[in-house]
Amino acid sequence: MMAAGVLAAATEARIAVPATLAVAGFDDMPIAARLSPALTSVHIPWRTMAHDAVRRLFASHLTPEPMIYPAPILERPSTAMPTPDLSRSALDPGRV
Question: Which domain holds residue 47?
Answer without folding.
Answer: 2-61+70-82
